[in-house]
Amino acid sequence: MSDVAAWIAVDWGSSNLRAWALDADNNVIAQAGSPRGMLGLAPDEFEGTLLELIDGWLPESAEAPLPVLICGMAGARQGWVEAAYLPLNDGTDNVLDRLGSRLTPVTTQDSRLQVQIVPGLCQHGAPNGGNAFDVMRGEETQLIGLIAERPGFSGAVCLPGTHSKWARLGNGRIASFDTFMSGELYKLLRYDSVLKHSLRGDDLSDEAQRGAFLAGIDTVLAAPERLSAELFGIRARDLLDTQLTQDETRGAWLGARLSGLVLGLELAGATASLPTDSQIVLIGADALCQRYRIALEHLGFTVGLEANEEMILTGLGHIRHAAATP
Amino acid sequence: MSDVAAWIAVDWGSSNLRAWALDADNNVIAQAGSPRGMLGLAPDEFEGTLLELIDGWLPESAEAPLPVLICGMAGARQGWVEAAYLPLNDGTDNVLDRLGSRLTPVTTQDSRLQVQIVPGLCQHGAPNGGNAFDVMRGEETQLIGLIAERPGFSGAVCLPGTHSKWARLGNGRIASFDTFMSGELYKLLRYDSVLKHSLRGDDLSDEAQRGAFLAGIDTVLAAPERLSAELFGIRARDLLDTQLTQDETRGAWLGARLSGLVLGLELAGATASLPTDSQIVLIGADALCQRYRIALEHLGFTVGLEANEEMILTGLGHIRHAAATP
């Protein structure tokens, strides 16, 4: 492992930023992070923000500028420089090569940097049953990482988050994808709706709360069209259900039920066309992936977990390689 | 018609208050309103708020105090005086008589008043397919009004609002009810979610917007489990759909689609067990009832409209009569 950086990988999301220095063999030799995500930055603030993090990794002279490859929301229209969405074709083309050939160069004041941004993917007209109109930005890199790590994998991949992505992979290609805004829906209901008075944060390691979570999943899978009635039912239970404990775990139990209802609706939609013995790969933050795993295993699916950071670094490495290959 | 008030009817909701003076034959001889709803008032502020509105209608002496009958959120735990929920039995009992016998008296400082509050209704254990736990407060009075006006009516009644109520009536009884928090869900998505950047208020008298509304209804009825994917699809359409107009009607078109998706989910749940040629009665604010009517007629239902105020006054009049009848 060398201690000289050959390139820098950056995952620049809406609400935070992570950077890694890698040697010529793609080993991580340094890493850094910051809460300065895209949403809090004007276009002319990105370069300075990045330099604060990576200045120590840069060469002293500008004779050989260091390549910096960025994925995520830094490429949004409101970001640093827009990296236009690349249309996902019918799933038969090599999206990796196309991503590599469509990197958006960013002109920097500091000549020691050579910055490029990975485009997001967009989808028109529901290829293979996905959303008629959909977009992703950042997750394409994780999916490229997964394809590189598991070239033979065929099936569904879920990247949980505020706007969860579900992609179908097959033959080393991304066939289609769907975004579910369940994470945002949960936050709105938990903190801004009439339900907020009834709810506390839950803990699925508690047996009763786990039971309430799974009952919420089952309820919404049995009748997804009753979601907004079941949501009000949480408020009514808080007023009426004398069998619920009266202490502080009451709110946690109801919070677990809310989580189950909202996540259950996503799973009902995302898994509707999957055979029940399918394997589903999860990529994302640990706690959220564990929650998805509990729900999916309850529904009979086999779940594989992949580390978020590894998928990003592998994905950026492969996109960089594709860009360098004529 | 006399100009001497025999009693006062009050509908005291979360965000406003309406009062009517009625003569001995229940003719309205005066009315008044105020934006001082229950949510903005401490318990000791209710009497003064009411007096500001009705002082001119009161007798000069306290020899014969004027009866005041209140329905709505003034009877909530956080209201003036709690009027505990009355359990809805199995739909075979006479809930009107029970409501009349369970009025909650309120002690006032002003001895010219004789105030009583109508209890709300609660539901345990899903009689006849309704929500396992549910509550209403105020709508029970409108339903009593409807039963009085249409004694032979059998079928579904919808009271649209922030928390829409759907009740089943039969044989002059309330059989069961369901609350859908679609109105609140719509507001959260319209004003507080990532979609807010894409949306404007819609106008269903515009043909294109009405089409977008109805397409939203059809989309969610065909696959209710895909709701949160279709919600994100609104954002993606705004980014990608080049066939949408670029002017200000674009946001209205997308707003109409959002309204269709959220209302469609409610209608999918609320009408799932209704024969498609059923009659559905709507009671509520005009604009919202018109929106429900357009959607329900699109789905093949026959819709009847009843005036909100008339149902409240008829309902309070009948509850008052039941209370006076041994």
From TrEMBL, chains A, B:
Signal peptide: none annotated. One of its GO terms (biological process) is D-galactonate catabolic process. GO terms for molecular function: 2-dehydro-3-deoxygalactonokinase activity. It holds the Pfam family DGOK. Keywords: Kinase, Transferase. This is 2-dehydro-3-deoxygalactonokinase. It comes from Pistricoccus aurantiacus.
